[in-house]
Amino acid sequence: xxxxxxxxxxxxxxxxxxxxxxxxxxxxxxxxxxxxxxxxxxxxxxxxxxxxxxxxxxxxxxxxxxxxxxxxxxxxxxxxxxxxxxxxxxxxxxxxxxxxxxxxxxxxxxxxxxxxxxxxxxxxxxxxxxxxxxxxxxxxxxxxxxxxxxxxxxxxxxxxxxxxxxxxxxxxxxxxxxxxxxxxxxxxxxxxxxxxxxxxxxxxxxxxxxxxxxxxxxxxxxxxxxxxxxxxxxxxxxxxxxxxxxxxxxxxxxxxxxxxxxxxxxxxxxxxxxxxxxxxxxxxxxxxxxxxxxxxxxxxxxxxxxxxxxxxxxxxxxxxxxxxxxxxxxxxxxxxxxxxxxxxxxxxxxxxxxxxxxxxxxxxxxxxxxxxxxxxxxxxxxxxxxxxxxxxxxxxxxxxxxxxxxxxxxxxxxxxxxxxxxxxxxxxxxxxxxxxxxxxxxxxxxxxxxxxxxxxxxxxxxxxxx
Length: 466
Ligand SMILES: Cc1cc2nc3c(=O)[nH]c(=O)nc-3n(C[C@H](O)[C@H](O)[C@H](O)COP(=O)(O)OP(=O)(O)OC[C@H]3O[C@@H](n4cnc5c(N)ncnc54)[C@H](O)[C@@H]3O)c2cc1C
What we know:
Layout: E1 6-10, H1 14-25, E2 29-33, H2 63-78, E3 82-85, E4 88-96, E5 99-106, E6 114-119, E7 121-124, E8 128-130, E9 143-145, H3 146-156, E10 163-168, H4 173-182, E11 186-192, H5 196-200, H6 203-207, H7 210-225, E12 230-232, E13 234-241, E14 245-252, E15 265-268, E16 271-275, E17 278-280, H8 283-288, E18 292-293, E19 296-297, E20 310-312, H9 321-340, H10 351-370, E21 386-388, E22 393-394, H11 395-403, H12 410-417, H13 430-437, H14 454-460
Parallel strand pairs: 1-2, 1-7, 2-3, 7-20, 9-16, 10-11, 10-16, 11-12
Antiparallel strand pairs: 4-5, 5-6, 8-17, 13-14, 14-15, 18-19, 21-22
Residues 10-16, 33-36, 41-43, 88-90, 125-130, 147-148, 150-151, 172, 175, 281, 314-315, 321-322, 325, 449-450 line the site of flavin-adenine dinucleotide.
Protein backbone atom coordinates (compact mmCIF):
# COMPACT_ATOMS: atom_id res chain seq x y z
CA UNK A 1 0.00 0.00 0.00
CA UNK A 2 1.19 3.50 -0.74
CA UNK A 3 0.66 6.63 1.32
CA UNK A 4 -0.12 8.72 -1.75
CA UNK A 5 -3.71 9.95 -2.02
CA UNK A 6 -5.84 7.89 -4.33
CA UNK A 7 -8.34 9.07 -6.96
CA UNK A 8 -10.77 6.65 -8.61
CA UNK A 9 -11.59 7.99 -12.10
CA UNK A 10 -14.63 6.31 -13.63
CA UNK A 11 -14.69 6.51 -17.42
CA UNK A 12 -11.65 6.33 -19.73
CA UNK A 13 -12.97 8.64 -22.44
CA UNK A 14 -11.40 12.04 -23.20
CA UNK A 15 -12.53 13.50 -19.84
CA UNK A 16 -11.37 10.58 -17.67
CA UNK A 17 -8.06 10.28 -19.50
CA UNK A 18 -7.28 14.01 -19.27
CA UNK A 19 -8.15 14.01 -15.56
CA UNK A 20 -6.04 10.90 -14.94
CA UNK A 21 -3.00 12.44 -16.60
CA UNK A 22 -3.38 15.76 -14.77
CA UNK A 23 -3.84 14.08 -11.36
CA UNK A 24 -1.06 11.52 -11.88
CA UNK A 25 1.37 14.24 -12.97
CA UNK A 26 0.68 15.98 -9.64
CA UNK A 27 1.63 12.95 -7.56
CA UNK A 28 -1.77 11.35 -7.03
CA UNK A 29 -2.29 7.62 -7.50
CA UNK A 30 -5.14 7.07 -9.97
CA UNK A 31 -7.23 4.00 -10.66
CA UNK A 32 -8.93 4.51 -14.02
CA UNK A 33 -11.99 2.27 -14.30
CA UNK A 34 -13.96 1.66 -17.50
CA UNK A 35 -16.46 -0.85 -18.81
CA UNK A 36 -14.79 -0.97 -22.23
CA UNK A 37 -11.94 -3.36 -23.08
CA UNK A 38 -9.73 -0.42 -24.15
CA UNK A 39 -9.30 3.23 -23.19
CA UNK A 40 -10.70 5.96 -25.47
CA UNK A 41 -14.38 6.28 -24.61
CA UNK A 42 -16.80 6.98 -27.44
CA UNK A 43 -14.78 9.53 -29.38
CA UNK A 44 -11.49 7.57 -29.36
CA UNK A 45 -13.09 4.12 -29.48
CA UNK A 46 -10.45 1.69 -30.78
CA UNK A 47 -10.87 -1.39 -32.97
CA UNK A 48 -10.59 -4.66 -31.06
CA UNK A 49 -6.90 -5.65 -30.91
CA UNK A 50 -7.51 -9.02 -32.61
CA UNK A 51 -8.77 -7.20 -35.75
CA UNK A 52 -5.22 -5.86 -36.26
CA UNK A 53 -6.49 -2.70 -37.95
CA UNK A 54 -3.75 -1.30 -40.17
CA UNK A 55 -4.96 2.31 -40.22
CA UNK A 56 -7.34 2.86 -37.27
CA UNK A 57 -6.69 6.61 -37.60
CA UNK A 58 -8.70 6.58 -40.84
CA UNK A 59 -11.87 6.44 -38.70
CA UNK A 60 -10.80 9.19 -36.32
CA UNK A 61 -10.39 12.91 -35.93
CA UNK A 62 -7.66 14.41 -33.77
CA UNK A 63 -5.61 11.23 -33.82
CA UNK A 64 -2.55 13.13 -32.51
CA UNK A 65 -4.40 14.00 -29.30
CA UNK A 66 -5.37 10.35 -28.88
CA UNK A 67 -1.73 9.25 -29.35
CA UNK A 68 -0.61 11.69 -26.65
CA UNK A 69 -3.30 10.43 -24.23
CA UNK A 70 -2.57 6.78 -25.03
CA UNK A 71 1.19 7.20 -24.55
CA UNK A 72 0.76 9.19 -21.33
CA UNK A 73 -1.53 6.45 -19.97
CA UNK A 74 1.04 3.78 -20.82
CA UNK A 75 3.79 5.82 -19.13
CA UNK A 76 1.65 6.42 -16.04
CA UNK A 77 0.95 2.70 -15.78
CA UNK A 78 4.59 1.81 -16.26
CA UNK A 79 5.61 4.27 -13.54
CA UNK A 80 3.06 2.71 -11.17
CA UNK A 81 1.08 5.97 -10.88
CA UNK A 82 -1.96 4.73 -12.80
CA UNK A 83 -3.86 1.45 -12.69
CA UNK A 84 -6.24 0.93 -15.61
CA UNK A 85 -9.09 -1.50 -14.93
CA UNK A 86 -10.79 -2.46 -18.20
CA UNK A 87 -14.09 -4.38 -18.54
CA UNK A 88 -15.16 -3.07 -15.12
CA UNK A 89 -18.81 -1.96 -15.09
CA UNK A 90 -19.33 0.33 -12.11
CA UNK A 91 -22.77 -0.16 -10.63
CA UNK A 92 -22.43 1.85 -7.41
CA UNK A 93 -20.14 4.36 -5.69
CA UNK A 94 -20.73 4.87 -1.99
CA UNK A 95 -19.02 6.57 0.93
CA UNK A 96 -17.76 10.03 1.69
CA UNK A 97 -14.70 12.19 1.17
CA UNK A 98 -11.60 10.17 2.07
CA UNK A 99 -13.46 6.83 2.06
CA UNK A 100 -15.19 5.95 -1.18
CA UNK A 101 -15.96 2.43 -2.35
CA UNK A 102 -16.46 1.77 -6.05
CA UNK A 103 -18.34 -1.45 -6.88
CA UNK A 104 -17.95 -2.98 -10.34
CA UNK A 105 -19.07 -6.04 -12.26
CA UNK A 106 -16.44 -7.69 -14.42
CA UNK A 107 -16.19 -8.88 -17.99
CA UNK A 108 -18.13 -8.22 -21.17
CA UNK A 109 -21.13 -10.21 -19.91
CA UNK A 110 -21.06 -8.54 -16.48
CA UNK A 111 -21.34 -11.95 -14.89
CA UNK A 112 -21.31 -12.53 -11.14
CA UNK A 113 -17.62 -11.70 -10.53
CA UNK A 114 -17.34 -8.36 -8.81
CA UNK A 115 -14.56 -5.96 -7.87
CA UNK A 116 -14.24 -3.24 -5.29
CA UNK A 117 -11.90 -0.21 -5.38
CA UNK A 118 -11.33 2.02 -2.35
CA UNK A 119 -10.32 5.63 -2.95
CA UNK A 120 -10.02 9.00 -1.21
CA UNK A 121 -11.84 10.85 -3.98
CA UNK A 122 -13.87 10.06 -7.08
CA UNK A 123 -14.03 11.56 -10.56
CA UNK A 124 -17.17 10.79 -12.55
CA UNK A 125 -16.42 10.88 -16.30
CA UNK A 126 -19.03 8.45 -17.57
CA UNK A 127 -20.04 10.46 -20.65
CA UNK A 128 -23.47 10.38 -22.25
CA UNK A 129 -25.77 8.16 -24.23
CA UNK A 130 -28.08 8.63 -27.17
CA UNK A 131 -31.67 9.69 -27.08
CA UNK A 132 -33.90 7.91 -29.60
CA UNK A 133 -37.55 8.76 -30.02
CA UNK A 134 -39.97 6.12 -31.36
CA UNK A 135 -41.80 6.08 -34.70
CA UNK A 136 -43.65 3.28 -36.48
CA UNK A 137 -41.20 0.54 -37.46
CA UNK A 138 -38.32 1.69 -35.24
CA UNK A 139 -37.99 -1.75 -33.64
CA UNK A 140 -37.27 -3.50 -36.99
CA UNK A 141 -33.87 -5.18 -37.36
CA UNK A 142 -31.73 -2.78 -39.37
CA UNK A 143 -32.80 0.28 -37.36
CA UNK A 144 -29.89 1.18 -35.09
CA UNK A 145 -28.78 4.27 -33.22
CA UNK A 146 -26.51 6.73 -35.01
CA UNK A 147 -23.85 6.44 -32.31
CA UNK A 148 -24.28 2.66 -32.37
CA UNK A 149 -23.45 2.62 -36.10
CA UNK A 150 -20.39 4.73 -35.35
CA UNK A 151 -19.36 2.54 -32.41
CA UNK A 152 -19.73 -0.59 -34.57
CA UNK A 153 -17.60 0.94 -37.29
CA UNK A 154 -14.85 2.17 -34.95
CA UNK A 155 -14.87 -0.85 -32.61
CA UNK A 156 -15.40 -3.75 -35.02
CA UNK A 157 -14.63 -2.16 -38.44
CA UNK A 158 -18.04 -3.50 -39.54
CA UNK A 159 -21.04 -1.83 -41.14
CA UNK A 160 -24.57 -3.03 -40.68
CA UNK A 161 -25.71 -3.00 -44.34
CA UNK A 162 -25.20 -1.75 -47.89
CA UNK A 163 -27.56 1.23 -48.08
CA UNK A 164 -28.14 3.50 -45.11
CA UNK A 165 -30.26 6.47 -44.16
CA UNK A 166 -28.83 8.56 -41.30
CA UNK A 167 -31.55 10.52 -39.54
CA UNK A 168 -32.62 12.44 -36.47
CA UNK A 169 -30.98 15.58 -35.22
CA UNK A 170 -27.63 16.84 -34.00
CA UNK A 171 -24.04 17.19 -35.11
CA UNK A 172 -23.29 13.50 -34.40
CA UNK A 173 -25.16 12.66 -37.63
CA UNK A 174 -22.34 14.25 -39.65
CA UNK A 175 -19.46 11.93 -38.60
CA UNK A 176 -21.85 8.99 -38.79
CA UNK A 177 -22.97 9.73 -42.37
CA UNK A 178 -19.47 10.57 -43.61
CA UNK A 179 -17.92 7.63 -41.70
CA UNK A 180 -20.38 5.14 -43.22
CA UNK A 181 -19.91 6.62 -46.70
CA UNK A 182 -16.11 6.45 -46.40
CA UNK A 183 -16.46 2.80 -45.32
CA UNK A 184 -18.23 1.99 -48.57
CA UNK A 185 -21.87 2.18 -47.47
CA UNK A 186 -24.21 3.96 -49.88
CA UNK A 187 -25.71 6.71 -47.72
CA UNK A 188 -29.01 7.34 -49.47
CA UNK A 189 -29.86 10.39 -47.35
CA UNK A 190 -28.90 12.40 -44.30
CA UNK A 191 -32.21 13.50 -42.77
CA UNK A 192 -31.83 16.33 -40.23
CA UNK A 193 -34.96 17.60 -38.52
CA UNK A 194 -33.39 20.90 -37.46
CA UNK A 195 -32.55 23.82 -39.72
CA UNK A 196 -28.72 24.13 -39.50
CA UNK A 197 -28.85 27.59 -41.15
CA UNK A 198 -30.40 28.84 -37.89
CA UNK A 199 -27.10 27.96 -36.24
CA UNK A 200 -25.01 29.72 -38.86
CA UNK A 201 -26.76 32.93 -37.75
CA UNK A 202 -25.32 32.53 -34.22
CA UNK A 203 -22.26 34.47 -35.25
CA UNK A 204 -20.89 35.09 -31.75
CA UNK A 205 -20.74 31.40 -30.80
CA UNK A 206 -19.29 30.55 -34.21
CA UNK A 207 -16.67 33.29 -34.13
CA UNK A 208 -15.37 31.95 -30.81
CA UNK A 209 -14.84 28.47 -32.31
CA UNK A 210 -13.29 28.84 -35.78
CA UNK A 211 -12.03 25.24 -35.55
CA UNK A 212 -15.61 23.98 -35.32
CA UNK A 213 -16.59 26.02 -38.38
CA UNK A 214 -13.77 24.35 -40.31
CA UNK A 215 -14.93 20.94 -39.04
CA UNK A 216 -18.46 21.65 -40.29
CA UNK A 217 -17.12 22.73 -43.69
CA UNK A 218 -15.05 19.53 -43.96
CA UNK A 219 -18.12 17.39 -43.26
CA UNK A 220 -20.11 19.35 -45.86
CA UNK A 221 -17.36 18.72 -48.44
CA UNK A 222 -17.28 15.00 -47.59
CA UNK A 223 -21.07 14.74 -47.96
CA UNK A 224 -20.77 16.35 -51.38
CA UNK A 225 -17.90 14.08 -52.38
CA UNK A 226 -19.84 10.96 -51.42
CA UNK A 227 -23.00 12.38 -53.06
CA UNK A 228 -25.02 12.11 -49.87
CA UNK A 229 -28.40 13.79 -50.32
CA UNK A 230 -29.03 16.05 -47.32
CA UNK A 231 -32.63 16.75 -46.36
CA UNK A 232 -32.86 19.43 -43.69
CA UNK A 233 -36.02 20.15 -41.73
CA UNK A 234 -37.18 16.63 -42.61
CA UNK A 235 -37.95 13.65 -40.41
CA UNK A 236 -38.42 9.90 -40.70
CA UNK A 237 -42.11 9.14 -40.24
CA UNK A 238 -41.99 5.37 -40.68
CA UNK A 239 -39.61 2.46 -41.18
CA UNK A 240 -40.94 -0.34 -43.40
CA UNK A 241 -40.13 -4.03 -43.68
CA UNK A 242 -41.39 -7.48 -42.80
CA UNK A 243 -38.45 -9.48 -41.42
CA UNK A 244 -36.12 -6.47 -41.39
CA UNK A 245 -35.81 -2.90 -42.63
CA UNK A 246 -36.49 -2.42 -46.35
CA UNK A 247 -37.25 1.31 -46.66
CA UNK A 248 -38.09 4.46 -44.74
CA UNK A 249 -40.61 7.20 -45.41
CA UNK A 250 -39.31 10.70 -44.79
CA UNK A 251 -41.27 13.95 -44.91
CA UNK A 252 -40.68 17.69 -44.66
CA UNK A 253 -41.58 19.59 -41.49
CA UNK A 254 -43.46 22.86 -41.27
CA UNK A 255 -42.24 25.77 -39.13
CA UNK A 256 -44.10 24.43 -36.10
CA UNK A 257 -42.35 21.03 -36.39
CA UNK A 258 -45.32 19.13 -37.83
CA UNK A 259 -45.08 16.81 -40.81
CA UNK A 260 -46.19 18.56 -44.01
CA UNK A 261 -48.70 16.19 -45.54
CA UNK A 262 -48.04 15.39 -49.19
CA UNK A 263 -44.24 15.70 -48.85
CA UNK A 264 -43.68 12.04 -47.89
CA UNK A 265 -41.20 10.07 -49.96
CA UNK A 266 -39.99 6.51 -49.63
CA UNK A 267 -36.26 5.72 -49.60
CA UNK A 268 -35.16 2.08 -49.96
CA UNK A 269 -32.44 1.14 -47.43
CA UNK A 270 -31.32 -1.76 -45.22
CA UNK A 271 -29.94 0.41 -42.39
CA UNK A 272 -31.43 3.37 -40.59
CA UNK A 273 -28.98 5.02 -38.19
CA UNK A 274 -31.10 7.33 -36.06
CA UNK A 275 -30.44 9.59 -33.07
CA UNK A 276 -32.21 12.55 -31.49
CA UNK A 277 -29.39 14.02 -29.40
CA UNK A 278 -27.55 12.88 -26.30
CA UNK A 279 -28.23 12.67 -22.57
CA UNK A 280 -25.65 12.64 -19.76
CA UNK A 281 -25.07 9.52 -17.64
CA UNK A 282 -25.93 10.67 -14.11
CA UNK A 283 -26.83 7.48 -12.21
CA UNK A 284 -23.62 7.26 -10.16
CA UNK A 285 -23.77 10.96 -9.33
CA UNK A 286 -27.41 10.75 -8.29
CA UNK A 287 -26.78 7.82 -5.94
CA UNK A 288 -23.95 9.80 -4.35
CA UNK A 289 -26.41 12.65 -3.81
CA UNK A 290 -24.85 15.10 -6.27
CA UNK A 291 -27.03 17.99 -7.36
CA UNK A 292 -28.24 18.03 -10.96
CA UNK A 293 -28.82 21.11 -13.14
CA UNK A 294 -31.57 19.88 -15.44
CA UNK A 295 -30.18 16.66 -16.92
CA UNK A 296 -26.53 17.49 -16.08
CA UNK A 297 -24.39 16.92 -13.00
CA UNK A 298 -23.81 20.34 -11.44
CA UNK A 299 -20.15 21.35 -11.08
CA UNK A 300 -18.29 24.47 -9.93
CA UNK A 301 -15.37 26.19 -11.66
CA UNK A 302 -13.03 23.40 -10.46
CA UNK A 303 -15.40 20.67 -11.76
CA UNK A 304 -16.33 19.76 -8.17
CA UNK A 305 -19.83 18.46 -7.56
CA UNK A 306 -21.60 19.62 -4.41
CA UNK A 307 -20.63 16.34 -2.67
CA UNK A 308 -17.21 16.74 -1.05
CA UNK A 309 -14.58 14.50 -2.66
CA UNK A 310 -16.55 13.97 -5.89
CA UNK A 311 -15.50 15.66 -9.17
CA UNK A 312 -17.27 15.31 -12.51
CA UNK A 313 -16.08 16.09 -16.05
CA UNK A 314 -17.06 15.56 -19.66
CA UNK A 315 -20.51 14.81 -20.95
CA UNK A 316 -21.86 13.72 -17.57
CA UNK A 317 -21.87 17.46 -16.77
CA UNK A 318 -23.49 18.41 -20.11
CA UNK A 319 -23.24 17.35 -23.73
CA UNK A 320 -20.42 19.24 -25.40
CA UNK A 321 -18.10 17.01 -27.42
CA UNK A 322 -14.62 15.63 -26.96
CA UNK A 323 -12.68 18.93 -26.80
CA UNK A 324 -14.83 20.21 -23.93
CA UNK A 325 -14.51 16.83 -22.19
CA UNK A 326 -10.71 17.12 -22.43
CA UNK A 327 -10.70 20.65 -20.99
CA UNK A 328 -13.01 19.71 -18.11
CA UNK A 329 -11.04 16.55 -17.36
CA UNK A 330 -7.79 18.51 -17.26
CA UNK A 331 -9.25 21.01 -14.77
CA UNK A 332 -10.85 18.28 -12.63
CA UNK A 333 -7.60 16.30 -12.47
CA UNK A 334 -5.50 19.28 -11.33
CA UNK A 335 -8.11 20.42 -8.85
CA UNK A 336 -8.57 16.94 -7.35
CA UNK A 337 -4.81 16.41 -7.06
CA UNK A 338 -4.20 19.75 -5.35
CA UNK A 339 -7.01 19.21 -2.85
CA UNK A 340 -6.00 15.61 -2.17
CA UNK A 341 -2.47 16.88 -1.51
CA UNK A 342 -3.93 19.35 0.99
CA UNK A 343 -3.24 22.45 -1.13
CA UNK A 344 -5.42 25.23 -2.49
CA UNK A 345 -5.44 24.73 -6.29
CA UNK A 346 -3.88 27.45 -8.42
CA UNK A 347 -6.29 28.18 -11.30
CA UNK A 348 -3.31 29.35 -13.37
CA UNK A 349 -2.53 25.62 -13.81
CA UNK A 350 -5.61 25.31 -15.99
CA UNK A 351 -6.08 28.84 -17.38
CA UNK A 352 -5.95 27.72 -21.04
CA UNK A 353 -8.35 24.82 -20.39
CA UNK A 354 -10.76 27.16 -18.56
CA UNK A 355 -10.78 29.58 -21.50
CA UNK A 356 -11.50 26.80 -23.96
CA UNK A 357 -14.16 25.38 -21.58
CA UNK A 358 -16.11 28.62 -21.49
CA UNK A 359 -16.11 29.19 -25.25
CA UNK A 360 -16.98 25.54 -25.96
CA UNK A 361 -19.83 25.67 -23.44
CA UNK A 362 -21.15 28.78 -25.16
CA UNK A 363 -20.85 27.09 -28.56
CA UNK A 364 -22.74 23.96 -27.46
CA UNK A 365 -25.42 25.97 -25.66
CA UNK A 366 -26.09 27.77 -28.97
CA UNK A 367 -26.07 24.43 -30.81
CA UNK A 368 -28.59 23.08 -28.33
CA UNK A 369 -31.12 25.78 -29.13
CA UNK A 370 -31.08 24.77 -32.82
CA UNK A 371 -30.73 20.98 -32.81
CA UNK A 372 -33.84 19.55 -31.19
CA UNK A 373 -36.30 16.85 -32.24
CA UNK A 374 -39.39 18.16 -34.10
CA UNK A 375 -41.76 19.76 -31.57
CA UNK A 376 -44.65 17.49 -32.66
CA UNK A 377 -42.73 14.20 -33.01
CA UNK A 378 -45.24 12.44 -30.72
CA UNK A 379 -47.98 12.84 -33.36
CA UNK A 380 -46.14 10.27 -35.52
CA UNK A 381 -46.31 7.61 -32.79
CA UNK A 382 -49.30 5.43 -33.65
CA UNK A 383 -51.19 3.57 -30.92
CA UNK A 384 -49.58 0.27 -31.90
CA UNK A 385 -46.00 1.62 -31.96
CA UNK A 386 -43.93 -0.01 -29.21
CA UNK A 387 -42.48 2.77 -27.07
CA UNK A 388 -40.92 0.86 -24.13
CA UNK A 389 -39.08 -1.99 -25.83
CA UNK A 390 -38.11 -3.85 -22.64
CA UNK A 391 -41.73 -4.24 -21.48
CA UNK A 392 -43.34 -3.92 -24.94
CA UNK A 393 -45.60 -1.04 -23.94
CA UNK A 394 -47.28 0.71 -26.89
CA UNK A 395 -48.06 4.35 -27.55
CA UNK A 396 -51.75 3.52 -27.15
CA UNK A 397 -51.25 2.10 -23.65
CA UNK A 398 -49.39 5.24 -22.55
CA UNK A 399 -52.07 7.54 -23.96
CA UNK A 400 -54.75 5.45 -22.27
CA UNK A 401 -52.93 5.74 -18.91
CA UNK A 402 -53.11 9.54 -19.26
CA UNK A 403 -56.52 10.12 -20.84
CA UNK A 404 -58.57 7.25 -19.35
CA UNK A 405 -56.76 6.46 -16.10
CA UNK A 406 -55.70 9.98 -15.16
CA UNK A 407 -51.90 9.51 -14.88
CA UNK A 408 -50.33 12.94 -14.50
CA UNK A 409 -46.67 12.09 -13.96
CA UNK A 410 -44.08 9.64 -15.23
CA UNK A 411 -44.13 7.47 -12.12
CA UNK A 412 -47.88 6.89 -12.38
CA UNK A 413 -47.59 6.12 -16.11
CA UNK A 414 -44.89 3.58 -15.18
CA UNK A 415 -47.01 1.98 -12.47
CA UNK A 416 -50.04 1.72 -14.76
CA UNK A 417 -48.27 0.50 -17.92
CA UNK A 418 -44.87 -0.96 -16.83
CA UNK A 419 -43.14 1.50 -19.24
CA UNK A 420 -39.60 1.92 -17.84
CA UNK A 421 -39.70 -1.11 -15.55
CA UNK A 422 -37.52 -3.37 -17.71
CA UNK A 423 -33.81 -3.96 -18.23
CA UNK A 424 -32.95 -0.37 -19.25
CA UNK A 425 -34.98 1.09 -16.37
CA UNK A 426 -36.37 3.85 -18.58
CA UNK A 427 -32.99 5.10 -19.81
CA UNK A 428 -34.06 4.54 -23.43
CA UNK A 429 -37.82 5.09 -23.31
CA UNK A 430 -37.94 7.77 -20.56
CA UNK A 431 -37.89 10.83 -22.86
CA UNK A 432 -40.42 9.21 -25.23
CA UNK A 433 -42.83 8.23 -22.47
CA UNK A 434 -42.59 11.72 -20.95
CA UNK A 435 -43.19 13.36 -24.34
CA UNK A 436 -46.17 11.15 -25.17
CA UNK A 437 -47.71 11.53 -21.73
CA UNK A 438 -47.07 15.28 -21.67
CA UNK A 439 -45.20 14.99 -18.34
CA UNK A 440 -41.94 16.54 -17.24
CA UNK A 441 -38.99 14.16 -17.35
CA UNK A 442 -37.91 13.67 -13.73
CA UNK A 443 -34.44 12.32 -12.79
CA UNK A 444 -34.39 8.50 -12.90
CA UNK A 445 -33.36 8.00 -9.23
CA UNK A 446 -32.06 4.52 -10.00
CA UNK A 447 -30.12 3.11 -7.07
CA UNK A 448 -27.69 1.24 -9.36
CA UNK A 449 -26.08 2.28 -12.63
CA UNK A 450 -26.24 -1.29 -14.03
CA UNK A 451 -28.45 -4.34 -13.53
CA UNK A 452 -26.77 -6.28 -10.70
CA UNK A 453 -27.04 -10.06 -10.12
CA UNK A 454 -28.66 -10.89 -6.78
CA UNK A 455 -25.60 -12.87 -5.65
CA UNK A 456 -23.34 -9.83 -6.14
CA UNK A 457 -25.77 -7.63 -4.25
CA UNK A 458 -25.93 -10.08 -1.34
CA UNK A 459 -22.13 -10.31 -1.13
CA UNK A 460 -21.68 -6.51 -1.36
CA UNK A 461 -23.06 -6.22 2.15
CA UNK A 462 -20.61 -8.74 3.64
CA UNK A 463 -17.40 -7.59 5.35
CA UNK A 464 -14.39 -7.79 3.01
CA UNK A 465 -11.75 -10.49 3.60
CA UNK A 466 -8.53 -9.09 5.11
C1 LIG B 1 -22.30 5.81 -29.15
C2 LIG B 1 -21.63 7.16 -29.27
C3 LIG B 1 -20.80 7.42 -30.37
C4 LIG B 1 -20.20 8.66 -30.51
N1 LIG B 1 -19.41 8.92 -31.61
C5 LIG B 1 -18.88 10.16 -31.78
C6 LIG B 1 -18.13 10.51 -32.94
O1 LIG B 1 -17.91 9.67 -33.80
N2 LIG B 1 -17.66 11.77 -33.08
C7 LIG B 1 -17.90 12.73 -32.13
O2 LIG B 1 -17.47 13.88 -32.28
N3 LIG B 1 -18.57 12.44 -31.00
C8 LIG B 1 -19.07 11.20 -30.82
N4 LIG B 1 -19.81 10.92 -29.71
C9 LIG B 1 -19.86 11.96 -28.67
C10 LIG B 1 -18.62 11.69 -27.78
O3 LIG B 1 -18.95 10.64 -26.94
C11 LIG B 1 -18.22 12.79 -26.86
O4 LIG B 1 -18.03 13.95 -27.56
C12 LIG B 1 -16.95 12.50 -26.04
O5 LIG B 1 -16.47 11.20 -26.22
C13 LIG B 1 -17.26 12.74 -24.58
O6 LIG B 1 -16.18 12.35 -23.78
P1 LIG B 1 -16.41 11.85 -22.29
O7 LIG B 1 -15.05 11.54 -21.77
O8 LIG B 1 -17.25 12.81 -21.55
O9 LIG B 1 -17.30 10.52 -22.42
P2 LIG B 1 -17.11 9.19 -23.25
O10 LIG B 1 -16.16 9.31 -24.35
O11 LIG B 1 -18.48 8.73 -23.54
O12 LIG B 1 -16.45 8.21 -22.18
C14 LIG B 1 -17.17 7.73 -21.07
C15 LIG B 1 -16.58 6.41 -20.68
O13 LIG B 1 -17.20 6.01 -19.46
C16 LIG B 1 -17.43 4.63 -19.50
N5 LIG B 1 -18.53 4.34 -18.60
C17 LIG B 1 -19.79 4.88 -18.60
N6 LIG B 1 -20.52 4.39 -17.57
C18 LIG B 1 -19.70 3.53 -16.91
C19 LIG B 1 -19.88 2.69 -15.78
N7 LIG B 1 -21.02 2.68 -15.08
N8 LIG B 1 -18.83 1.90 -15.39
C20 LIG B 1 -17.65 1.92 -16.07
N9 LIG B 1 -17.42 2.70 -17.15
C21 LIG B 1 -18.44 3.49 -17.56
C22 LIG B 1 -17.73 4.32 -20.96
O14 LIG B 1 -17.40 2.98 -21.27
C23 LIG B 1 -16.83 5.31 -21.69
O15 LIG B 1 -15.61 4.72 -22.05
C24 LIG B 1 -20.41 9.67 -29.54
C25 LIG B 1 -21.23 9.38 -28.44
C26 LIG B 1 -21.84 8.15 -28.31
C27 LIG B 1 -22.73 7.88 -27.11
